[in-house]
Automatic annotation (TrEMBL):
InterPro entries linked: Cyt_P450, Cyt_P450_CS, Cyt_P450_E_grp-IV, Cyt_P450_sf
Source organism (scientific name): Sugiyamaella lignohabitans
Full protein name: C-22 sterol desaturase ERG5
Family annotation (Pfam families): p450
GO biological process entries: ergosterol biosynthetic process
Amino-acid positions noted as binding heme in the UniProt annotation, renumbered to this chain: 474
Keyword Oxidoreductase carried by entry: yes
């Protein structure tokens, strides 16, 4: 019964002595209820108003002198709704608003550093900051995952992984990658034929990259069927790990689906790790990243105390199947969106520039010495200088990762007049440094030749932030350059692809990384004679 109804009820009681006392008692109780309820409400209201004022004051104090809204326009939630569907132009406007700017979403205060020197400073301040993956990432990648290690523990673990990406190791993985390129390029032609015309290729490039990564990491231990399941479902993991997401995993939400696919993938990886252990124990050769890792473990166990070899350099210990599966998952996670973004832009950019395509083809014929069917090896890929410049320029022009979220472990005096508060998210941005007109003339134009030896771009190593810098710099960067160069060289040599340009083609859509907003509409066909220019 509501308070108003109770009062109407008491008003209608007959007035004899008993009834009077009853009625008085009832009336007092009702008044007490009304009083206590109104007191509860005023208490609730006071607390809410107090919290709102605290939220605004706390924001204004944390903001200090840096760029950003004067107060939180949407109390508490801040620009949460906008960040559910982030727009590249809005990010860019933020970067342009000042070298340091801020935003506050719920209880999270976020500081964005948009120039090269501040971004580098953050990347290189491990005593003040550590990588901040979205809250839900800890649940998906598991708290025991090496990526959440900090300081010396992180440096040591990482050292044991360096052996997986040496030039020699990359040479072993390359033939497997080439088999996947061949298979998928043929599939692209078949798809274009069956579709009787162009179709959006971004989802196809995502699948190609997932397959390349899975074969590189797990070799033949992973089945075709498993590759297909993971490739088909990987986007659910990306969706679960968007920068802004609900932190609790509720059934049938994006994060719930993401967690299911992550667990399934890690289980597959753990089984592959055991197969790699059995294979190396039987004296098998290294064929993939897992083999390379197990071989390093095997060699380190059998190395003598005065061995001064690779093994000691990499500080390898014994890793369990669970650890291997979690770590290999981080490789897939780190690689998938960024490599798919780079691949999509590369196919679009090259299709739109016949002069670039012609130069790649000329180089491919030249470096292969007339043998177009020569299989890929590291020496061959390293001799593709122009193709490599195209890849490098695409990564600068459309950097897949535009920002890397870190978190301040303690108050961080980043400049003479601003200290980032402890607990704030700190985001060094990569895009502005890679579009700095002082280093890259006409930064919004695609010019592969700017990467010739001794050019201003080549000499400005400090601006090359595509892979980050500092203790968390991308572990896969040499592999990425080799993979993308090899893949684009082969595609250009054997295939034609036509781009259907739409008004959205040059618009940048943010989905973890960046993609053309129309998903890159292409039509593939096989070249009749790859020996011709
Ligand atoms: C175009 C492709 C790629 C781009 C643009 C890219 C970019 C990045 C960036 C910006 C970071 C953060 C660096 C920092 O905080 O300083 C990173 C970290 C990382 N990347 Fe990549 N990445 C790519 C592909 C790959 C691939 C293929 C692998 C694995 C084979 C990989 C493995 C990693 C790992 C493990 C980390 C975390 C390292 C650590 O915390 O110590 N990435 N990457």
């Amino acid at each position: 019964m509501s308070v108003e109804n109770a009062s109407v009820f008491t008003d209608q009681l007959p007035l004899d002595a008993d009834n009077l006392s009853q009625s008085l008692t009832s009336s007092l109780i009702v008044q007490a209820i009304v009083w206590s309820r109104s007191n509860v409400w005023s208490l609730v209201l006071t607390v809410v108003v107090g919290l709102l004022i605290y939220d605004q004051i706390s924001y204004i104090i944390k903001k200090g002198s840096i760029a950003g809204p004067k107060f939180k326009v949407w109390p508490v939630i801040g620009p949460f709704l906008e960040s559910m569907n982030p727009k590249f132009e809005e990010y860019k406007a933020k970067w342009d608003s000042g070298p340091l700017s801020c935003v506050s979403v719920f209880h999270k205060f976020v500081v964005i550093a948009s120039n090269r020197d501040l971004a580098r400073k953050i990347f290189n301040s491990p005593s003040y900051v550590k990588p901040c993956v979205v809250d839900v990432a800890i649940k998906l990648l598991r708290p025991t995952n090496w990526v959440f290690l900090d300081g010396k523990a992180h440096v040591d673990y990482r050292r044991s992984l360096n052996g997986l990406f040496t030039r020699q190791a990359l040479g072993v993985y390359l033939p497997h990658q080439e088999t996947i390129y061949d298979k998928y390029f043929e599939r692209f032609v078949a798809l274009s034929k069956s579709n009787k015309g162009p179709l959006p290729f971004m989802p196809e490039f995502r699948e190609l990259n997932c397959a390349v990564s899975l074969r590189t990491f797990c070799g033949e231990y992973i089945t075709e069927e498993q590759v297909k399941i993971i490739s088909d479902n990987y986007y659910k993991i990306t969706a679960a790990l968007e920068l802004v997401n609900f932190p609790i995993i509720l059934p049938f939400t994006k994060t719930w689906y993401g967690k299911k696919i992550t667990d399934m993938t890690m289980d597959i990886f753990a089984k592959c790790a055991q197969m790699a252990k059995d294979h190396i124990a039987q004296g098998g050769d290294v064929t993939c990243v897992m083999d390379a890792w197990v071989k390093l473990m095997h060699d380190s166990k059998n190395s003598t105390s005065d061995d001064n070899d690779e093994v000691k350099k990499f500080l390898v210990r014994d890793f369990t199947n669970k650890e291997i599966s979690e770590t290999i998952f981080t490789f897939l996670f780190a690689s998938q969106d960024a490599s798919s973004s780079a691949t999509t832009w590369l196919f679009q950019i090259i299709a739109d520039r016949p002069d670039v395509m012609a130069k790649i083809r000329e180089e491919q014929l030249r470096v292969r010495d007339g043998d177009v069917h020569r299989r890929l090896d590291v020496d061959l890929v390293e001799s593709m200088e122009y193709t490599r410049m195209v890849v490098k320029e695409a990564l600068r022009y459309r950097p897949p990762v535009t920002m890397v979220p870190y978190v301040a472990k303690k108050s961080y005096p980043i400049s003479a007049d601003y200290t980032i508060p402890k607990g704030a998210m700190v985001i060094p941005t990569l895009y502005p440094a890679l579009h700095d007109p002082e280093v890259y003339e006409n930064p919004d134009e695609f010019i592969p030749e700017r990467w010739v030896a001794n050019s201003p771009a080549t000499n400005a190593a400090k601006n090359w932030l595509v892979f980050g810098t500092g203790p968390h710099v991308c572990l896969g960067q040499t592999y990425v350059m080799l993979n993308l160069t090899a893949m684009m060289g082969k595609a250009a040599l054997f295939y034609d692809w036509k781009h259907t340009v739409t008004e959205k083609s040059e618009n940048i859509r943010v989905f973890a990384t960046i993609f053309p907003d129309d998903d890159c509409i292409l039509e593939f066909s096989k070249r009749a004679d790859p020996t011709k220019l």
